[in-house]
């Protein structure tokens, strides 16, 4: 049982981590780019130091070679003068310098190799950061589109509320005019109480007129003329 609970907890934590990573994906990418940029800057600093040391070693090698060349000439001159003591002393100095030269040349070779490797790493890191920045631009664009789509989906989901409101408006607008309805009811009531019967019979020509008509007014005006 405890094993099952532990498995469920591990699964829940993994899902929660995935949700967090998805929610803050852009921020995480930005942070990784900052970390990669910092590492690249450190590598550049190391490369600069190696190149500086390499240049210094080259100068030392050149200096030792110059000293060896000078002592060789002096030793040859001493030998010509049969000055074996000075020639032997020069030979010892030359040997020491040649040993020093060999060590410095090995150092230069190691620096050369290290510089080549580190320069390659720096160039690779630079390209990767450029790619990451381009990827970040694309990720931002996709996230922007996702946000727009999410808002659109929300609007679509709220369409039922809009539709309901439209139906209510149509229902209100479609109702019969209560004032007109009251007038009609009043006319119906008058008809039922025979209040309009005399008017209708008068209009049909039975009996005296119960009300003045337009024809009556016109007849009166003509008689005055």
Question: Could you characterize what this model shows?
Answer:
With 225 residues, the chain is mostly helical. The protein contains 7 helices and no strands. The protein has helices at 2-23, 25-80, 84-157, 159-173, 178-192, 197-203, 214-224. Helix 2 (25-80) runs antiparallel to helix 3. The chain is rod-shaped. The N and C termini lie far apart (117 Å).
Describe the secondary-structure layout.
Blueprint: H1 2-23, H2 25-80, H3 84-157, H4 159-173, H5 178-192, H6 197-203, H7 214-224
Number of strand elements: 0
Please outline the major beta sheet. none
Integer-rounded radius of gyration: 54 Å
Straight-line N-to-C gap? 117 Å
Low-confidence sequence ranges: none
SSE pattern, N- to C-terminal:
HHHHHHH
SS-based class: mainly alpha
Average pLDDT across residues? 76
Count of DSSP helices?
7
Query: What is the helix fraction of residues, given as a range?
Result: over 70%
Strand content: under 5%
Assembly context of the chains: single chain
Shape: rod-shaped
Structural descriptors:
225 residues, mainly alpha, 7 helices, 89% helix, 0% strand, rod-shaped
């Amino acid at each position: 049982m405890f094993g099952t609970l532990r498995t469920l907890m591990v699964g829940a934590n993994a899902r929660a981590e995935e949700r967090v990573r998805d929610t803050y994906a852009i921020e995480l990418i930005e942070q990784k780019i900052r970390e990669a940029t910092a590492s690249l800057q450190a590598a550049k600093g190391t490369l600069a130091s190696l190149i500086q040391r390499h240049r210094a070693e080259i100068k030392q090698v050149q200096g030792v070679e110059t000293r060896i060349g000078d002592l060789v000439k002096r030793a040859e001159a001493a030998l010509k003068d049969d000055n074996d003591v000075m020639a032997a002393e020069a030979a010892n100095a030359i040997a020491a310098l040649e040993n020093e030269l060999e060590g410095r040349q090995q150092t230069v070779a190691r620096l050369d190799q290290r510089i080549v490797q580190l320069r390659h790493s720096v160039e690779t890191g630079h390209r990767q950061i450029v790619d990451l920045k381009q990827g970040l631009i694309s990720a931002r664009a996709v996230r922007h589109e996702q946000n727009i789509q999410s808002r659109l989906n929300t609007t679509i989901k709220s369409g039922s509320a809009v539709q309901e409101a439209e139906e209510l408006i149509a229902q209100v607008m479609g109702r019969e005019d209560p004032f007109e309805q009251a007038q009609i009811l009043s006319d119906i009531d008058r008809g039922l109480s025979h209040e309009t019967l005399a008017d209708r019979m008068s209009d049909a020509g039975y009996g005296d007129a119960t009300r003045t008509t337009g024809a009556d007014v016109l007849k009166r005006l003509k008689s005055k003329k």
